[in-house]
Each structure stands twice: as structure tokens, then as C-alpha cells.
């Protein structure tokens, strides 16, 4: 369990990025963090593994103040994939890159082999395993960077903008992997602007604006709130828009629906059942 | 890396900042040459006594001190190794002088780089009849020093998040730990260079032979004064060095 208690942070002590952020992340949750550019999302996830330390307030990991741990110690429990894959890749083959992360955390040789193969195939980059990451496309490099952390299956996995540069099918593959890890009991935290991605896969959403959390709760409640949508510079999800136009015709249709299944049920109901 | 801060342009209002870059370039070169003429403690201290007020005039004394603090490990390293390994008759004196010379050289050049805006630099070079492409490359290089620094920190963060322990282990382990930092840094820089080149070309870089410029630099009276004083100082110091026998200032040990 991770708790943030009234965490504030300013870069160089000048540029405020977080103001009194408090939240609790239980084991096994799957959470999306959304917000405008500069809302403090990346700053927040960097506090999870100690890359940034709060100016005031506390980050508590499993009941212990995170300031007692080094980043390397926290990294064993909390895997963080940053936005730019090029900051991470440095070896001359995709496979080595994934192996490096596992070795760093001290896995056994056959475990490393097995996990590397499994992760590479799950993300659809198995056929690239001998290639140099530097010759790959942006989207592929991104997946290699993701693979190198996903393979370690940390107890808490935080991904900063993992869907950038990925086509719809790759996003689905990524989502499948995240959900699978989540089923195994891993906590998954994803920072993203991709509202449809969030609605489909994440049960809880934290919305941020100018360094504070403005909403935290079930995704459907958070993302069907117009104020949140406005403050996060998002557009209302298409399904919610559809639900709203249906609501103008049939007032008993709930206007804050976000899920396809919910909308289907309503339409079936209006049509008088199957 | 914090010592690099002293070579980084900072937007400020000061006498040093408002001088013409060409005058400052001459001043910096003269100061550097003078620092290279002496390898005795006392004259180098005098040079520093000139340089420090210059940094104060650039309103950058605190920044300078911070950089020197960042550099102190290297300076102490130089001091110890030279004292132990030098074959000079008075190794400690020699090492202290070396350290002072390094500080003086860094400060001389920092008085230039700290106060000259990249655009001004390229404009100055162009007006000194350097070809535009070279002048532009020069100011781009200056412009990207801080960016590269930020990038280095971001890469360190990313590798730390993977469990790389940068400041643990013996010296060999630490050197090995540099690889995950330096390789991405080089790759990212090359990628960025290509990107910049492409985007500049798509915006018509080099399309017309005759460039026009928004601003032209012009020498003011104080710029002439700086140049004249610098040249007089240079001649004077050369004269002293060559023709006046200097007493032995070394600290007896």
C-alpha cells in the first residue's frame, strides 16, 4: 500500500508542481492518473519510487516513510517507466535491454530467459529481439522500454504515458498485459491523456489540475463530470455524449454513462427487451 | 556536473551582460592568456582578485561559488595527485598554482559564456566575418548545453528507476555505471541534431544567400574602453613576465 500525505513539491524550490496531494493506493488496484500538461502527473509518479522527495508531507510505502529507502530499494517494489524510451535504452539488442532490468533485480538465469520471452511476445516485439533498439521506430522503442520494466513484474507498476505513439492494436496488447498483471495482484498506475483507454480498462481515476488532485474515484464518476473534463482539457467520452443525446429523448436514461455495456443495456431496455 | 552552471548564459541585467560580446571575448582571452603566463601562487591570486570583482559585476558571484564548490572534488584530486607525483622541486606550491590557474581559466571563460546570449554570440561572430553557418552552429552548441544537462539528469532518473545504483560500489563499478547514462545521452543528442537539421531545412534554412538581421551590434564607448584596458594589461603583463625578474614567492616548506 502506498500513501501520500499532504505532499507538496516545487522544482528548484521555485516552480510548484504538487500542492498538498494526499492519496491512498491499495495493493492490487488499477488506477489512471489524468490531467492537463503540467498538472503534476509525472511529478507525482516520481514521488512513488523516490526519484523526487517531497518538500513537505510524506510518502509512505507499506507503512514506512519512503525517505528511509533509496531509489534502488524502492525500484525493486515499484517499477516506473518514464515517458521517453530513449532515456532508457542503451544496449545493442532488444533482448539484452530486457535482460538488463531483470539482472539488475537479481533474478535467476532461467527465470530471466522465460520472462524475457514472455514479455517480448506479449508486446509483439519478439521478432525484434536481436535488433538494436536504436534502429527501431519510436513506437517500437517505447514498447522495448515498457517490456524491460514489465518483465520484472514489480509489485507496483507505474507507467508514464505508455500509449504515446502506439496504434489501437498495440494499445490493446498493452492493456491486456496490464490487466493480466493486475489479475496477478500487481498494482498498476498509468499516467495518460487517452480517455477511451482509461474508460475501458481502469476502475479508478485520479484527475489532477495545477498540482492538486481535483477528483479521485470510480472512473465512470470522475470522467462523466463536466468540471473534471474541462479542468483536465479532455473531451467528453463519446459514449457519455451518446448517453446524453439519448437522455434528451428518453429522460430515464442515465446521462453519465461511460461504458459500452451500460449503454447497450439502456438501448435494449428502451427497445423493450431482447 | 553542477560546475558547468558557470558556463551557462543567464538572463540578467548587469554591466557585464550589457557589454558588447566582442569586447567581452577580447577581455576573456586576455584574462586567460595572462592566467597561462604565470604558474606561481602570488600572481595567480592577483589575477583571481581581478576576476572575482568581474563576476560580481556580472551579478553572478553566488553562481560562481556554487560552481567552484561543485568543482572542488576535482580540484582536490588535482592538488593531491600533483603533489604526490610531481617532479618539481616544490610540488605543493606547483600543485596549488595549477589549481589556481584552472580556476582562473574557468572564471575567465565563464565571464564570457555566462553573460553572452547565444544569439548575440552568433551575431558577434557574423559581424567578425565568420560565415553564418559556423556562427549559427556555435550559438546552437551554446544553446544546447543546458538542455543536454537536463537530459543527463532525466536519463539518470530513468536508470535509477530501473534499479541502477549510480553512486554505489568501487571505482570500477561506478565507471561501468556511466555506460547506461552516456550511451542514451549520445544517442538522444544525435537524434535531436538530425531532427533540428530537418526542421530547420523545412523552414527554409539557407534558402537565400543574403541574410538580413533583426539586430546589429554596435561598439559603445565603454566597449572600446574594455578593449583598450585589456590590451594595455596584456602588453604590460607580457613585459613584466619577460623583462622583470620576479621574486620567488613560493611558500617555504
Strand content of chain B: under 5%
User: How are helices and strands ordered from N to C of chain A?
Assistant: EEEHEEHEHHHEHEHEEHHHH
Relevant CATH superfamily of the largest domain in chain A: P-loop containing nucleotide triphosphate hydrolases
SS-based class of chain A: alpha/beta
Largest sheet of chain A: 6 strands, mixed
Count of discrete structural domains of chain B = 2
Low-confidence stretches of chain B: none
How is this structure best described in words?
The complex is a heterodimer of chains A (274) and B (253). By secondary structure, chain A is α/β, with parallel strands linked by helices. Chain A folds into two domains: 2-86 and 154-235, 3-Layer(aba) Sandwich (Rossmann fold), CATH 3.40.50.300; 236-274, no CATH class. Helices cover 40% and strands 23% of the residues of chain A. Chain A has helices at 41-48, 71-77, 94-104, 109-122, 138-150, 168-183, 195-201, 219-223, 226-231, 238-249, 260-270, and strands at residues 2-11, 15-25, 30-35, 56-61, 64-65, 78-81, 156-160, 187-191, 204-209, 212-218. A six-stranded mixed sheet of chain A has the order 6-7-8-3-9-10, sandwiched between helices. Chain A has a four-stranded antiparallel sheet with strand order 2-1-4-5, covered by helices on one side. In chain A, helix 3 crosses helix 4 (109-122) and helix 3 (94-104) runs parallel beside helix 5 (138-150). The model of chain A has no long low-confidence stretch (mean pLDDT 91). By secondary structure, chain B is mainly α. Chain B folds into two domains: 2-116 and 219-243, no CATH class; 128-202, no CATH class. Helices cover 72% and strands 0% of the residues of chain B. Chain B is flat, with a radius of gyration of 22 Å. The mean pLDDT of chain B is 88. Chains A and B meet through helix 2, strand 6 and helix 3 of A and helix 7 and helix 8 of B.
Amino acid at each position: 500500500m502506498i500513501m501520500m500525505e499532504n505532499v507538496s513539491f516545487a522544482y528548484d524550490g521555485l516552480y510548484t508542481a504538487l500542492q498538498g496531494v494526499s492519496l491512498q493506493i491499495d495493493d492490487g488496484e488499477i488506477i489512471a492518473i489524468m490531467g492537463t500538461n503540467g498538472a503534476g502527473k509525472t511529478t507525482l509518479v516520481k514521488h512513488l519510487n523516490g526519484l523526487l522527495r517531497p518538500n513537505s508531507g510524506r510518502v509512505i510505502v507499506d507503512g514506512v516513510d519512503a525517505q528511509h529507502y533509496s531509489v534502488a530499494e524502492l525500484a525493486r517494489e515499484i517499477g516506473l517507466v518514464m515517458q521517453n524510451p530513449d532515456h532508457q535504452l542503451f544496449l545493442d539488442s532488444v533482448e539484452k535491454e530486457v535482460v538488463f532490468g531483470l539482472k539488475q533485480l537479481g533474478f535467476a538465469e532461467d527465470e530471466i530467459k522465460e520472462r524475457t520471452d514472455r514479455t517480448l511476445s506479449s508486446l509483439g516485439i519478439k521478432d525484434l529481439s536481436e535488433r538494436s533498439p536504436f534502429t527501431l521506430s519510436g513506437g517500437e522503442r517505447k514498447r522495448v522500454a515498457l517490456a524491460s520494466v514489465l518483465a520484472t513484474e514489480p509489485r507496483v507498476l507505474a507507467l508514464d504515458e505508455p500509449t504515446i505513439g502506439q496504434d489501437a492494436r498495440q494499445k490493446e496488447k498493452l492493456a491486456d498485459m496490464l490487466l493480466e498483471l493486475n489479475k496477478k495482484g500487481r498494482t498498476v498506475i498509468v499516467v495518460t491523456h487517452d480517455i477511451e483507454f482509461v474508460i475501458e480498462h481502469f476502475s479508478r481515476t485520479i484527475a489532477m489540475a495545477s498540482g492538486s488532485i481535483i477528483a479521485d474515484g470510480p472512473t465512470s464518476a470522475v470522467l462523466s463530470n463536466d468540471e473534471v473534463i474541462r479542468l483536465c482539457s479532455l473531451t467528453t467520452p463519446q459514449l457519455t455524449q451518446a448517453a446524453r443525446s439519448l437522455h434528451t429523448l428518453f429522460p430515464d436514461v442515465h446521462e453519465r454513462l461511460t461504458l459500452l455495456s451500460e449503454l447497450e443495456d439502456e438501448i435494449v431496455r428502451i427497445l423493450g427487451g431482447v | 556536473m553542477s560546475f558547468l552552471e558557470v558556463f551557462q548564459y543567464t538572463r540578467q541585467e548587469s554591466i557585464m551582460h550589457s557589454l558588447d560580446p566582442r569586447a567581452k571575448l577580447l577581455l576573456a582571452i586576455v584574462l586567460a592568456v595572462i592566467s597561462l603566463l604565470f604558474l606561481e601562487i602570488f600572481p595567480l591570486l592577483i589575477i583571481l582578485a581581478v576576476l572575482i570583482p568581474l563576476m560580481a559585476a556580472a551579478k553572478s558571484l553566488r553562481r560562481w561559488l556554487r560552481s567552484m564548490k561543485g568543482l572542488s572534488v576535482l580540484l582536490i584530486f588535482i592538488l593531491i595527485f600533483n603533489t604526490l607525483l610531481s617532479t618539481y622541486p616544490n610540488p605543493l606550491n606547483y600543485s596549488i598554482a595549477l589549481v589556481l590557474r584552472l580556476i582562473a581559466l574557468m572564471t575567465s571563460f565563464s565571464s564570457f559564456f555566462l553573460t553572452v546570449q547565444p544569439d548575440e554570440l552568433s551575431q558577434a561572430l557574423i559581424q567578425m566575418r565568420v560565415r553564418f553557418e559556423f556562427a549559427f552552429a556555435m550559438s546552437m552548441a551554446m544553446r544546447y548545453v543546458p538542455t543536454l544537462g537536463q537530459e543527463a539528469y532525466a536519463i539518470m532518473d530513468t536508470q535509477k528507476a530501473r534499479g541502477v545504483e549510480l553512486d554505489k560500489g568501487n571505482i570500477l563499478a561506478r565507471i561501468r555505471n556511466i555506460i547506461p547514462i552516456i550511451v542514451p545521452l549520445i544517442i538522444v543528442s544525435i537524434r535531436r541534431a538530425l531532427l533540428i537539421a530537418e526542421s530547420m531545412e523545412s523552414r527554409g534554412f539557407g534558402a537565400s544567400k543574403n541574410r538580413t538581421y533583426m539586430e546589429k551590434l554596435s561598439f559603445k564607448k565603454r566597449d572600446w574602453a574594455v578593449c583598450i584596458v585589456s590590451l594595455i594589461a596584456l602588453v604590460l603583463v607580457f613585459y613584466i613576465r619577460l623583462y622583470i625578474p620576479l621574486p620567488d614567492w613560493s611558500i617555504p616548506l
